[in-house]
Amino acid sequence: MTLINQLETQLKEYFSARLDSYRNTVIKQAYKTLPKAKYPMITIEEIDNSEVDSRTTANGEQTTLLTYQIVCYSRDTEEYDYVDSARFMAELVNDFIMNNYKMRRLGSPTSIPYVTDNTVMTCIQRYSCVYDKETNLIYKN
């Protein structure tokens, strides 16, 4: 299983265990067309996958620098308006990523209205790590 597939699966489990409006959050890779967009929604996109020549594992394997962009989309929910809802989702994602994957967040979350529907707010975050696919270990970079 690739790391992006693992992230997608575990985020689905994490959100489905919630007892609020975020329980039915759609979580998918950014370029998968299904399931159709409904909100709240989170997309995951791998935006960098490059070898790290200067870092090898103890066994001599090369590692890979991975960067993911995670975008939270939301309309108004029972708990929050659409701006605060997208930010709340981003906080949940951040807590999940930090506690389970120890990835480094790059910069601060960015909130902007969704370009094709101004009733939807997006909150964009990027995370980075050095990954050894042979041992399935994530190293802080």
What does this structure look like?
The longest helix is centred in the middle third of the chain and has 19 residues, at 82-100. The mean pLDDT is 90. A hairpin with a 5-residue loop joins strand 2 (41-56) and strand 3 (62-74). The chain has 2 helices and 7 strands, in the order H-E-E-E-H-E-E-E-E. Helix content is 23%, strand content 42%. It is an alpha+beta fold and 141 residues long. It has a single domain, classed as STM4215-like, CATH 3.30.2000. Strands 1, 2, 3, 4, 5, 6 and 7 form a 7-stranded mixed sheet that branches.
* CATH architecture classification name: 2-Layer Sandwich
- Which regions are unreliable across 5 or more consecutive residues at pLDDT < 50? none
Through-space gap between termini: 22 Å
Number of strands: 7
C-alpha geometry: elongated
Fraction of residues in H or I helices? 10-25%
Percentage of residues in strands: 35-45%
Q: What is the chains' assembly state? A: single chain
CATH topology, what is it called? STM4215-like
| Overall average pLDDT | 90
- Describe the main β-sheet briefly: 7 strands, mixed
What is the gist of this entry?
This protein is α+β, with helices and mostly antiparallel strands and 141 residues long. It has helices at 3-16, 82-100, and strands at 26-29, 41-56, 62-74, 104-105, 110-114, 117-132, 137-139.
Topology:
Elements (H helix, E strand, L loop, with lengths): L2 H14 L9 E4 L11 E16 L5 E13 L7 H19 L3 E2 L4 E5 L2 E16 L4 E3 L2
Parallel strand pairs: 1-2
Antiparallel strand pairs: 2-3, 3-6, 4-6, 5-6, 6-7
Overview features:
alpha+beta, STM4215-like, seven-stranded mixed beta sheet, 2 helices, 42% strand, 141 residues
